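Q: Could you fold this chain for me?
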Amino acid sequence: DMKLLCENLVFNKTSEATDDMLERTAYERACIDAKKKGLTMPRKPRGKFPNLPRKQFAYDNVQPKPATEPPLPTSEAAQNHTPNPYRNSNITHEKIAAIRAKATNPTPPKIDHCQPSDTYPESFPHFVRGRDSLREYITSLFTSRIAMYDGAMGTMIQNYAKKNKLEEEEYRGERFKDWKCNTKGNNDQLSITQPHIIKGIYKEYLEVGGSDLIGTNTFSSTTIAMGDYEMEDYVYELNYEGARLAREACDEVTAKDPTKPRFVVGAIGPTNRTGSISPSVEDPSARNVTFDELVDAYFEQVVGLMDGGADILMVETIFDTLNAKAALYAIGEYLEFSGLDIPVFVSGTLVDQSGRTLSGQTGEAFYASIRHAKPMCVGLNCALGAKHMTPFVEKLSKCVECFLHVYSNAGLPNAMGGYDESPDDMAQANKVFFENGWLNMVGGCCGSTPPHIKAIREMSESYKPRKLPDVGRPKMWLSGLEDLKVEDVHNHLGLPFLNVGERCNISGSLRFKKLMMSGDYGTAMDIAKKQVEDGAHVIDINVDDGMLDGLAAMQKFVKIAVTEPEVSKVPFMLDASKFEIVLAGLKWCQGKCIVNSISLKVGEELFKEQATLLKKHGCAVVVMAFDEEGQAATEEEKVRICKRSYDILVNEVKFPPEDIIFDPNVLTIGTG
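A: Sure. Below is the predicted structure, expressed as structure tokens.
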């Protein structure tokens, strides 16, 4: 380094050369004085850090391979492309049976929808329920042409009301004529009271629009959303009837042309409550719904949709990713209990030109947060017209590993709340997606009608669908409000380096501890902000203390932190000695977190149970080098325990290997 200092000074290579040499000269003199007087040697000046590009390793040279299908869920049925038998009566899990037992359907619902195996020929493009794998069929369809989704249900109901009487009396029908509150506006209820209207709309999209897939009239059919109409008890029936009518319409249209099968997409809306956003201006930690309440509501909806004949499940119009994660968790539970392989689609909503959801996430962060559920198709819908969606669709097309869709509004709403784009206008606005090869499926949202869908379909027919991206080496991909690929960050020497801020840790900051003990969460949040400003890639949150209610403190801190954009833009590391504390914090995080930590010291069975739960929530995990015998002290023990942990996680739990972080307990080097 002295040679470098001299060269910089003699050849005047840098403007700081003289100051650097003076600083170094003062240091050398101080060293001489310290030696003479027997004092501690002074700290050597650090000098100017180099800023080297990221160092390349052998694993960086792994060549991507062409993808043949979207990433598969880890279930045996999905891995083997096992056809859904459509015999829901064979699904008798107690939680599913309990929902069916309280169903309000006037007559016992028909929940089996299988077809004789010889209904249609065996080769694509034909499809027979119970015989063919829908996952394989969608892959063939989405890679051969741009598939068509439907358009707006609400717009069509409004259009019907302009030409026909559709007031409170019609909404109630005979079934609910004496209902205790007004129900006009509860469009999902029409599946029960005016089924001919809903089925007629389905058939218009199929026959006029040419839709391959149609969404069910169940956008608000959860106990949470139906609370507005005091119809929580009718949720199973609403979903069943919404799916049943769509099933009938699809089967009738398919029978006319078996070479173009039509599919039912069970529509799962966002509810009218959010897990990430406080309803109170005064209290950022307040919430009007919990993760577990959302999961229960979505699970009941899923059971009704599947019993009604849905082929696919779509979590749509996501303005808060935490709600979507709850829906995907519920779907995962249903798939686990039933043993089925059901394709899952996910559709986010970016609310304005900032390109963020209402809860603040970018499109890339939204995808990173839900990709653990292995959706078959991901995309955007609602809020914006196609023109305004263009830059965000392009970004998603560059990062989404599965199929991609868009169903935009017919432009932006006018002063009267209507939509002005004609079918031709909307088709032209979508053309940029087709020209760039960004989409596998397209449809319409608010303001769109069957003629809009027809125009978009005709526009798309001369273009090829999006090619699935090549499959490269997996990387840890975290998210807060923004996404973070861990291997993309490195230090000044070019070596991989993730900077975890440890000052929101009671063990890492006396000031933070005092603030947490006094309940001063606002000032504690300033510590988190400062860490992000100073370059932390991830914020560690630990509230372990014998004098503190860790469960309550973790939840409150996380709930406040996710409302602070300067803090929540980075991923969190939830850190606690008790598993229930990190799990509680995890249920308030819309992004993809790291959990710190689990280990084999609790025994293999509990270790697998904890890892399975974390996998369902889609987080990365720190694994400590502990086992039933205690902490690993030697190199041999560290390697043995880490390998055993890895083998259990990857081979038995099916945990993504790129989301495993090992802590080999190097603290013993300093402490003995």
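A (continued): The CA atoms of residues 248 and 457 lie 23 Å apart.
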